[in-house]
Specification:
The complex is a heterodimer. Chain A is of the alpha+beta class. Chain A contains 9 helices and 7 strands. In chain B, a hairpin with a 2-residue loop joins strand 1 and strand 2. The chains are: A alpha+beta, B mainly alpha.
């Protein structure tokens, strides 16, 4: 009611792809009428549905501020974080929320992430020190240029939007994929790290960088400016260099 | 017993789902026209080896209206191919640091396009000089 000082709520239609494995043969769209204000995100719209309209709706979320990477979904067919996308952008038209593309649907908007997590573990996503170092030697020092080499790739929040944007991953999930390869590059490009040669085994492999066809949509949808397409494609050059340099260098190009 | 029954969605028609993928398919498709023109030129080399009459025949065939239309289509697709190629070039290159700062993608694309335009113009002038 405007006259007693309250904000008039607008109503937006949200269509959600539902899938309840115990009763549904296949997913179907269910429509909800959601009152919203201009500061409400798509995630808050889903939370309204769960709290007020339909408690059976399942979706993942945690931080509400684009840092946990849990609430990724296809919003009108585009991979986005629910918390970083606002309902006002779609009003007065309706919007469709579907689980992230290219992943198996477990229930409603919840997708299976085992494949992604398994790949993440394979790349050693941590710094393997080049040489043993004692506490007395103090901290590792890096120049701003050394930091710049990996900084953007370290912004990855594992939200998997880039996987939902990658048709190559959708067509063949053996592909390690953009996000994990970007993280692989983040550690390889770090001057403190000494495990490049081990990680390059994965880069060279069929499921490594060579499965990428440079569609480039991964970098478009990344909510953190990581540019995974750049990480993957500059490693094609690195992989080709390693291939040729092994003929001339005694231990190959990998240090 | 687990109640899990993961549902895998079909990838049929994936490239029609997003305008970005359509543009990608067009970019890849123009590579076919690049090959087509390579075949035309290769055919010219074969005709050249067969003697002057054969080569002149090939040149005359190139001047037919259909051939001119074909060449206009090729030119348009080559321009688009070049533009798309340099657009993704920044993604394929190692990071270039100048004074500790990352070189911006637009600069790499711009330099690439400028160099290819200059090279095309220089080649055009050279060929025209040789032909006259």
């Amino acid at each position: 009611m405007a006259d007693d000082g309250k904000i008039i709520e607008k109503i937006i239609e949200i269509e959600v792809l539902r899938y309840r494995p115990e009763q549904d043969k296949e997913p179907f769209f269910q429509s909800y009428q959601v009152p919203f204000t201009d500061d409400m995100s798509v995630l808050q719209g889903l939370q309204y549905i769960k709290d007020q309209l339909d408690g059976t709706l399942s979706f993942r979320w945690s931080c509400r501020m684009a840092i946990c990477g849990s609430c990724g979904a296809m919003i009108n067919g585009i991979p986005k974080l629910g918390c970083k996308t606002f309902l006002r952008e779609y009003y007065p038209r309706k919007l469709r929320v579907e689980p992230l593309a290219h992943f198996p649907i477990e229930r409603d908007l919840v997708v299976g992430v085992e494949d992604f997590i398994g790949k993440l573990e394979r790349i050693k996503p941590y710094i393997v020190p080049k040489e043993p170092r004692t506490l007395a030697q103090g901290e590792y020092l890096q120049t701003p240029a050394q930091l710049e080499r990996f900084l953007q790739f370290s912004s990855c929040i594992n939200c998997m939007l880039c996987y939902a944007a990658c048709p190559q991953y959708g067509l063949d999930s053996n592909f390690i994929g953009p996000g994990v390869l970007a993280l692989l590059h983040r550690y390889n490009a770090d001057s403190r790290d000494g495990a490049r040669s081990e990680r390059m085994e994965l880069v060279h492999a069929e499921e490594g960088v060579w499965s990428c066809t440079a569609v480039g949509y991964c970098s478009e949808v990344c909510p953190k400016g990581v540019d995974p397409a750049n990480a993957v494609n500059q490693n094609k050059t690195a992989s080709a260099m390693d291939y040729f340099l092994r003929f001339v260098l005694p231990k190959g190009a990998s240090r | 017993m687990s109640a899990r029954r993961p549902y895998v969605r079909s990838m049929d028609g994936w490239w029609r789902r997003n305008p970005f993928f359509i543009v990608y398919m067009i970019r890849e498709g123009t590579a076919v026209l690049v090959i087509a023109y390579a075949v035309v030129l290769l055919f010219g080399v074969v005709r050249l080896a067969q003697g002057e009459a054969a080569y002149d025949g090939w040149l005359t065939a190139l001047q037919s209206p259909w051939s001119l239309v074909f060449h206009l289509i090729l030119l348009a697709s080559f321009v688009y191919h070049t533009w798309s190629w340099f657009s993704i070039m920044p993604k394929t290159m190692p990071m270039i640091l100048i004074g500790g700062k990352k070189l911006q993608p637009a600069v790499i694309t711009g330099v690439g396009l400028a160099v290819s335009a200059i090279a095309c113009a220089a080649l055009f002038v050279l060929v025209m000089k040789l032909a006259s």
